[in-house]
Structure formats: structure tokens, C-alpha cells
Amino acid sequence: MRLYYENPYIYEWDAKIINQIEKGGLYLTELSETAFYPEGGGQPRDFGWIDGIEVIDLVEEDGKIYHVVKEKINKRTVKCIIDFERRFDHMQNHTGQHLLSAVFLEMYNAPTNGFHLGDDYLTIDIGLENINEEIVLNVENKVNELIFKNIPVKSYIVNLEEAKKLPLRKLPPTDVDIRIVEIEGIDYSPCCGTHVRSLGEIGMLKILKTEKYKNMTRIYFKCGKRLLKDFQEKNTIINSLIKNLFVPQSEILIKFDSLQSEIKNLTKQLNSLKEINAEFIAKDLLVESKENKIIKIFEDKSFEELQTIASKLTSLTSDLLILASLKDKKVILAHNGSLDINCGKIFKEELQKFNGRGGGSPKFAQGSFETAQALNDFIDFLIKH
């Protein structure tokens, strides 16, 4: 007997062990009655325990539900408990999905072609390619208006002929009895999942974002306690922004745009100064060069800065360049093309011997290393050879 069909709020009950099948070191346990919901209809399985032993999976075969546990249960009668917080989360969000799908169909003739209820996110895929903010707001407002009316939700079994008389969104491909979940006067859906008694128990529904998916639109949303947790996390972030930006909530975006513009201008100024600084460094290195080689190891400069310096130097001299950044553990070998040295070939043939990675062209090559010692060893190799 499947207790979740009679009452999805049952989370603790006694049952008898009907059968236990050992398979691969696990035990598939059949109970006389169960409230454990196996995965199906887009809804994940329940978590829980049989006499304190964790149910690690649920398997449905030939109309029977097997509870997978890691040890044999040596009792005739057992106490079963499911994780009701998880169950109720599924009930809130699964019913929320039915309602959201019904409103999209009613308002925009957009059927639901896919549904995912996971621990990380919740989505429906609707047959509407282009959705704007106005559509999202209209649907969201209508859904929550119906939730606040606390309309009853009920389920019942009908045969195929009776099902054909109902305004179902889609008739299931079966000729056996069909379970219907009805949101009174709003939606009739064939469904084997667990649902709340009335829409008010959903609490609230929020569409979080939309994205194009194939020739449809994927709608991300949350309901109930899951939505409350999301709001709490976002409220913490907003309060932190208010505190650090010294602006009210209504002005956060304005302040953010202002800061972005300021950062963009400062970055532009900084890059200009880096260019000037790189030119000075390049000229100093050119004065210090010996034997047609410029070798310099920088402790605090980034690899990006080295690239700029190398670019300046190759425009000023035909010397061979060996420039390294201890900060990023990277090295450059370069020249302006007048030397008979294939930088990329050298790096390709030798880098692996020093546990380095990289490559390049005949005129410019770069390599990176796990340790500063490996970098220095490779630089010594370049200088000697």
C-alpha cells in the first residue's frame, strides 16, 4: 500500500517486512505499506530510515517499491520515518510547478514540455521562444494571486474514459487507472507525485530567471521554504551592499553603475601608466644589455607586464630577450625576428624536462612552472644553451 497517495503528510508509521532480497551487498526491502515516494514524474525520491537504518535508494519494479538498505533487517515489524522537511519542499514546489504551468497555458497558450525538480534548481521548459519581463511579471502576479486565494488541491483515481472527459493538458499513454491532481477549477493533471492540500501552503512563487532552451524557454523558479531561504541569502547580500556603499536599497544599482564607470576610467589610466613604465624599463634594460642578450628576472611584476615590456624591447632592439616573473612563475623568450633562433621549437622540445608548460612562435614563446626553482633551472638552461 502506498500511503503517500492517501495522505502525503504521513512521515512516521509502522510496517511489516514482506520480503528482503540481497543484491550486490545491499538489501532490497519490501514493506507491507510505505510512505516512501520513489523517483518519478520529475520528482526526486524521499529520504528516510527503517528502524534507524538509512534508506539509500528506492527501486520500483513490477508495481512494488523496494527500499534499499546496507544491512539486513532482522525484525518482523519496523518503524519507518521519512525526512518530511525534504518531502514538504517537494510538495510545495511540485504543486507550484502545476500552477505555474497552468497559468502559462491559460495566459499565453504555452504548454510545459519539461520539468526538473532538483536540490540545486527547479525549472520548467515551456513552448514559448520569446519571453520578456512583462510576460514574466504577468504570470508571476497571476500565480501568486491564486496562491493567496488558498484554492484546494485534491487527487483522485479515474479510468481512461473518465479521464477523457476532464480538461487535461495531456492524456497519459496508458489504459489503466489514472491518478489526477486537481487544482480546483484551474488545472487537471495526470500525476503520481505528492502535493499540498491547498495553494496557500505553497507560500509564494518567484520566477528567478529565464533562458532560451532549444526552441523553448527554460523558466527557473522557487516556492515556499526554498524561496524563503533564497530571499534570506539575497537580503544578507543587499544589507551588506547598503552598509558598504552607504546608499539605500533603491540606489544600489545607480551606485554600482557609477563605480563601474569609475573603475573603467581608472583602469584606462592605469594601463596608460603601465605602458609608459614599460617603455622606461625597456630603455633601462637596453642600456644594461650585454652580448646581444637582455636577461631580467622580476620578483613583483606580473606576466602581463612582462609581455608589454617584451613588446617594447622587440621594437627597439634585435637582442635576444629572456624575461621572467617570479610572481607568476613564467618566462618569455623572444626576439624581433632577426635571429636564427626558433623560440617556440626550443620550448616545445625542452619545457617538459623542467615540468613546465607552454609554447609559442619562432619569435616569441612563453612557459609556466609549478615552482620558482623549476623556473630558475629553465632560465639557466636558456642562458647556457
Describe this entry's structure for a reader:
This protein has 385 residues and is an alpha+beta fold. It has three domains: 3-82, Elongation Factor Tu (Ef-tu), domain 3 (Beta Barrel), CATH 2.40.30.130; 87-240, Threonyl-trna Synthetase, Chain A, domain 2 (Threonyl-tRNA Synthetase, Chain A, domain 2), CATH 3.30.980.10; 272-384, Diaminopimelate Epimerase, Chain A, domain 1 (Roll). The protein has helices at residues 3-6, 84-108, 133-148, 160-164, 224-245, 252-288, 303-316, 343-350, 372-384, and strands spanning 12-23, 26-31, 48-50, 53-55, 57-61, 64-69, 77-82, 112-117, 122-126, 153-158, 178-183, 187-190, 205-213, 216-223, 293-298, 320-325, 330-334, 356-360, 364-369.
